[in-house]
């Protein structure tokens, strides 16, 4: 966009050169065009450097896209779906035409992670085998989505949304409160194995920003303040399950003043889910 804007300015100066009969004005326009070109180059370079040096940790870590065999994560790591989960997989695959059964890839990876606690490469290979697709297709998906954890995580996986609405509503202060409370940084796990911390992309609760998700029960905690998240972490430490949802008193994605469109309370989480899954 910047390049197009400056290009328009440059063209304006160039057109002025062609229509002007005054040599002095032509000289001034040439100087302006030269300055614009110089500014364009400087801004383009600065924007590029800003993009390179300011990537959040969730993007810049090579651990997101590179696999390195380890003692606990290699092709020989034992993994097989349980008989119960195989029945779930049959339901998932049945939702797609035979030639498009690979559409079940994401829910199958999610199921593998829930069974194993995280997603080793052997689980990816098992998913590829069942679907009859290349392993690379599974790698591409597993490394793209931050919901898939390719290393062991803490019992309570705290994910802080860092996208624009949450950021504008105070996500940075929530992250600061968590790191101070737990003594860990993004991408780390507490020594007792109770908590892991990550910054993630939008989790779809923008109206109740800022928010976090804790992946033990997939619970959302919304409309947070630093004090709220501190209390929530204390409850998890005590082995309790804090009540999920907005901390402001709202019961759904609604204005802070209450319902304005719906005539009845919204359906609860999980409404309409297929019981077979």
Automatic annotation (TrEMBL):
Q: Which Pfam families match?
A: 2Fe-2S_thioredx (PF01257)
What name appears for this protein in its UniProt entry? NADH dehydrogenase [ubiquinone] flavoprotein 2, mitochondrial
Q: Which organism is it from?
A: Brugia pahangi (Filarial nematode worm)
The record ties this protein, via Gene3D superfamilies, to:
Glutaredoxin, NADH-quinone oxidoreductase subunit E
Coiled coil segments of this chain: none
Renumbered to this chain, region (Disordered) spans 237-277
Q: Which family does it belong to?
A: Belongs to the complex I 24 kDa subunit family.
Source organism, top-level taxon:
Eukaryota
What GO terms fall under cellular component here? Answer: catalytic complex; membrane protein complex; mitochondrial inner membrane
Low complexity composition-biased segments:
258-277
What is the required cofactor set for this protein? [2Fe-2S] cluster
Any one Gene Ontology BP term: mitochondrial electron transport, NADH to ubiquinone
Mention one GO molecular function: metal ion binding
Keyword vocabulary terms for this entry: 2Fe-2S, Iron, Iron-sulfur, Metal-binding, NAD, Translocase
């Amino acid at each position: 966009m910047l390049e197009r804007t400056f290009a328009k300015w440059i063209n304006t100066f160039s057109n002025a050169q062609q229509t002007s009969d005054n040599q002095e004005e032509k000289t001034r326009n040439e100087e302006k065009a030269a300055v614009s070109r110089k500014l364009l180059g400087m801004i383009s370079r600065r924007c590029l450097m800003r993009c390179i040096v300011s990537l959040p940790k969730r993007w810049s870590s090579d651990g997101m896209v590179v696999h390195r065999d380890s003692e606990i994560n290699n092709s020989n790591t034992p993994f097989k779906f349980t008989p119960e989960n195989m029945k779930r997989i049959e339901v998932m695959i049945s939702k797609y035409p035979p030639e498009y059964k690979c559409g079940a890839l994401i829910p199958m990876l999610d199921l593998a992670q829930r069974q194993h606690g995280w997603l080793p490469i052997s689980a990816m290979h098992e998913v590829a085998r069942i679907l009859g697709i290349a392993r690379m297709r599974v790698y591409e998906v597993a490394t793209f989505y931050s919901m898939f954890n390719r290393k062991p995580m803490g019992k309570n996986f705290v994910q802080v949304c860092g996208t624009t609405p949450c950021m504008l509503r105070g996500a940075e202060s929530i992250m600061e409160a968590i790191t101070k409370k737990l003594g860990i940084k993004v991408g780390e796990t507490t020594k007792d194995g109770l908590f892991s911390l990550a910054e993630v992309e939008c989790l779809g609760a923008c109206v109740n920003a800022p928010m976090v998700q804790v992946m033990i029960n997939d619970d959302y905690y919304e409309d947070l303040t630093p004090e709220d998240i501190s209390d929530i972490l204390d409850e998890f430490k005590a082995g309790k399950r804090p009540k999920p949802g907005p901390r402001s008193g709202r019961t759904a994605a609604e204005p802070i003043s209450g319902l304005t469109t719906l005539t009845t309370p919204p359906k609860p989480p999980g409404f309409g889910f297929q019981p077979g899954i």
